[in-house]
Amino acid sequence: MLKPTSTFALGLVFGLLLPDEALAAVECTGTFEPITASEYVAAINPGWNLGNTLDATPTEGSWNNPPVQAVTFTDIKAAGFKSVRIPVTYADHFTGTSPGWAIDTDWLQRVSDVVDMALDAGLYVLTNVHHDSWQWADIAAAGANVTAIEERMYQTWLQIGEKLACKSSSVAFEPINEPPIDTEEQAAELNKINGLFLQALKDSGGFNTQRVVTLVGPNMDSIKTSQWFKAPTGYENPWALQYHYYSPYDFIFSAWGKTILSADDIAAVEKDIENIRANFTDIPLIIGEFDASPINTEPAARRKYMDVVVRKAKELDTAVMVWDNGIDHFDRTTKQWKDPQSLQILLNAAAGVSNSLAEYTTDASVAEQSSSAYVFHKVGDAVTDQTISISLNGNTLKSIATEEGTALTASTDYTASGGDITFTSSFLSTYFSSSGATGSKVNLTLAFSAGATAAVNLVQWDVPKLGSTTSKATSGADLHIPVTWAGINQPAAVKMRRDDGVYLFDDWTQYLGPLQAAYGTYNGQWNWDGNNLILTAATVDAVIAAGVATTFTFDFFPRVPGNSLNYTVTV
Q1: What would the pLDDT profile of 407-417 be if each residue is shown by its tens digit?
Q2: Which residues touch 167 (CB under 8 Å, ≥6 apart)?
Q3: How deeply is 32 buried, as exposed, middle or buried, from its count of CB atoms within 10 A (0-12, 13-18, 19+)?
Q4: What CA–CA distance (Å, rounded) separates 452 from 261?
Q5: 58 Cβ partners below 8 Å, 6+ apart?
Q6: Exposed (0-12), middle (13-18) or buried (19+): which is 125, by Cβ within 10 Å?
Q7: Residue 102 DSSP label
Q8: pTM value?
Q9: Tens digits of per-residue pLDDT, 261-288?
Q10: What pLDDT was estimated at residue 12?
């Protein structure tokens, strides 16, 4: 229960002389069971992000998710997660200006209520100040008024601290999300803001000086954090250090045609996580955001990535919290996970249990890509035996079943030799034929002696068909190209080459492999929907600016020679 709160304790930070009564702080009834930062980090692993919700602007419900309900946290707990990160944006909820920066009391109450929902579900909680980092708290912006940012940050956390002062030790605070930082001088200012955050918590009262906090470095980037982060001194809070991880960028965001997670990529991921641990040997670490979305990444590579990140983090006593914007992973309405195998892999890796994983092409220099997350059969070809490969990682294959639960029979439907599993032509003929309809035919689930199951999608494919093959560029609008799918209903990547031989974007991609040279980037330059391939307005405008007709080559899965279509945009 809260007692009457203080007026603002601004004087402690900005040197203002305020009467002693202005420094009164929240007092709590009840008890608080302190935990160390190491205990908190161990307890929260793995965690889940309530993305695009309270962090949406201007308010909750403004983006793709409705206001969160308590059942979502119950679902997340039931799925196996131990914690939730609740990002919150306050920028549009200020009712006052300098010096007090009053926050709408209804909004503070909503934040408190959502925190309680998560606690009631048995989850640990981490909450922050989120998109404010670029809306008003960007100390790297040209002409930034750093003094005003300091004042507002202090006042923001003073009020949050007062509102949440009496929450249990299961609740931790994070000062600001991904603060933009370009220079060492700006990083020093961020280190100061970490201190202002702690001072605000101290002044707010309650249990806040005993509460775990996760401090942040520049951009929450592991390299910049290693270079420039310095912890504030003179505060009692147990603290961990949080960073975010979205690397390799081109794989995570499907940039420049990258659909292959290479062996070099995997080595780099492991090295990145090892390096920040080596730089902060005695500090509890949290990867507060990471992701590889089922929307745009190839399944076998995505599942390998999930396993590598979580397993390496576990090895180095680092907690992980997967980013979920309500699109990528958990559908809060249907309560379905977009990729159940990725979920299982995450949970098992976080528990230190070995996962068996589908193998896939790891050489980024090749001209075609294979994946054991699929068995592909092209229309017109005879149905033959097909083999996939699984990295067993110490496990053994126990069973294979269809999505309806029908078990496959060893020797008759498949044979297994180590990690190589061969599906017989007689079994595959149940789903494939030389002239049958295209599309996903069945999903098989492979169960092992331990760890996650593996999913294998049987797909009959042909080259899709376009409604037209050319059009004239129209400025300022996305170009929708009708398509009739013939297998997997999405493109893999899009090459963008002007008819004079120049790449429409990023000429430097000529130094990449044949599946990336001249290719564009998903979402920013190309996309798709249920019935269309989409070139974004930015891409169409680039064609107009170049003044040269451009041919777009849409690749599909499987990425093999011949499984692509050309579309030309003229000017």
Answers
A1: 999 999 999 99
A2: 115, 119, 125, 207
A3: middle
A4: 20
A5: 91, 92
A6: buried
A7: P
A8: 0.95
A9: 999 999 999 999 999 999 999 999 999 9
A10: 42
